[in-house]
Structures are given as structure tokens and as C-alpha cells.
Amino acid sequence: MEVVREKWGQLKDGRWAERFTLSNARGMQAVVTNYGATLIGLTAPDNNGNMADVVLGFDTLDEYVHGRGYFGATIGRVANRLSGGSFMLDGKVHEVVQNKDGFQIHGGAGGFHSRLWEAEIRNDVTGSKLILSYRSEDGEEGYPGNVDVQAVFSMIENGLRMEYRAATDTPTVLTMTNHAYFNLSGRGADSILDHVVTLNASGWLPTDEKQIPTGEVAEVAGTPLDFSRPTAIGLRIDESFPPLELAHGYDHFYIIDGDPCELTPAAQIFHGGSGRVLEVCTTQPGLQFYTGNHMADRINGKLGVLYGPRSGFCVETQGYVDAPNRPEFPAVTLRPGETYHHVTEYRFSNM
Prior knowledge:
EC 5.1.3.3, 42% strand, 29 strands, 5% helix, mainly beta, globular, Aldose 1-epimerase, carbohydrate binding, Beta-galactosidase, Chain A, domain 5
């Protein structure tokens, strides 16, 4: 099906952001804006076939520009935390812009989430695709190299596929993700504590008090972080367990079991009230599972709905946290002549 394209809102510099609606044969829709390559809507059917938007977000461009929480945004150059506001690459220290307490998070204040991307709609034998492109110039937020990035959105039979590609002219670091908040009830004001989660992950990364990895890899078995079997988010989220207390809930990096080069099932989330099931598959080696612990008490969301803490959960597929500063972790280095490439799919079904 064709992609519907429309002007959406104007930035302060006069440029217009656009909104794109993608559909599949089942009537599911994804809505994306080229501001931040942001997923602003995604519908999925419940057990009775009723469609509802299961992604939290806002009604206007201005709310995305001035809001917090990275709702639905594409994150880069480096997702998650980068300790000390610097990293060493090929013997040279690169200082990056710090936008948190002594470190950088999600690519800095001027990261990919805050940029206007170029848009192209392409139709081929596989269907319609929205191709968003951005050039991150040498020195942006402190990172070396001119990096050309693409985020490709396309509908699949049962959901949404996101494909990321990038190339650089100078050695640099890169690991991207999407920061969508989900609530499978289709009612963003509801708590997500009743959602039942299974994670295909037996290991996780312990952190310090700033939630920067210590370099250790630990087993989830025997801890409240263990989602190897279906478990309600709210069952253990408030247990007296230091990593949970530090993060005020779940906000932890899980190492996905399996081959990180293959499209692998990483997470499955089930909502009993609607019967909706979300399966996240990815070629990334890990994911950050976050339960909206730091969302404000009253966030004005879509259609006047008020969001609050734990109104949404995130499954942020990505490379290891702080990998540029941890040689023991799989590298996220990108060099000239190489192509950064990863795929994540959101697949929906009913139970």
C-alpha cells in the first residue's frame, strides 16, 4: 500500500517537518515523522479485531521538539550512556557533549532525535518504504567523521520493520536504536505493570550508581531481572533489590541469547486485557528494557490522555552500553568502507 505524505509542523528555522502514514493489508498503520525519524503512532488489533494505537506520543510537532523522554525517536550516534563524556579510538581521546550528570546519554542534546531528516518514498516489489536520511557532520556532539545515516520504515504482514544503515569517512562509533514507548492496552493512561514479559536473555550488565556498566556480565537467573519465563512487569518491580532500587524499576541492559548477526526473537510482551502480543526481533546483540520509571506524573499525551510513571515500556535494541569505553564489550566502531546495518521488527499477534 502507498505511503501517505503530509506537512505536519514548522520548525523555528522555517523548515517543515512531515508526517508519513504507512499501512499494511490487515489495516495496521505506522505514523512516522522525519523530525528525529520518530515513530509517532502504531496500531494493532485486539482479540476482537479492534485497532488501537499502542505507542505513546504527542499530537503536535512542538511537543516533540520541546518534550522529554525521546518518545519514539531514532537515537544516535550512540544510544544509551557514554561514560565520562569521552571515548578513545585509535589512540585518540574524543570529548563528546555531556547532557547528563558527567556523561552523555542518547547521542547528546543535539543527537539524531533532534534533527530533521530528508525523506524519500520508494516503491518496489516488496512494497512501499519510507527512507529517512541524515548526514551527521564531523564534530557533531563531539563525534569524529561525516556519517551518512538511513532509517528505513516499512510495514510487514503483522507489524513494522525498521532498518538502519550508515557509512563514515573517518573511524567513529555508532549504535542506534528506536525509543518507542509501548502500552498494549491501547490506552496510554493505563499502567503497564500488568503486561507479561518474556526476554530471550540470560545475561545482563550490572552498573554503577550512574547506571554506567561496570564491565561485568551477570546472570539474570535467581534475580528479579529474570524474564526468561513469562512474568508480569509489576510482580517484582518494587522488590528490595539494589539494581531495581537504583533505577526505580526496570532500566537495564539485557544480552540477547543467540547469534547477534541474525534476526532473532528478543522479547515478547502480552497484555491480557486486549489479547495483544508484541514480539520484538532484532539483529542487535542486546536491549535496554525500560518501564517508564522517570516519566513525569502528568504528561499531556495524544488526544489529551495524561501519561504517568510506568504508563509505557521500551525495548531499545542496541549495542552494549558504553562499548566505546569498554574493550571487553563487542565494539561499536564504524570505519570507512564498512556499512553499519541492523534490523528490528515489531510483530503483533493475539492470544
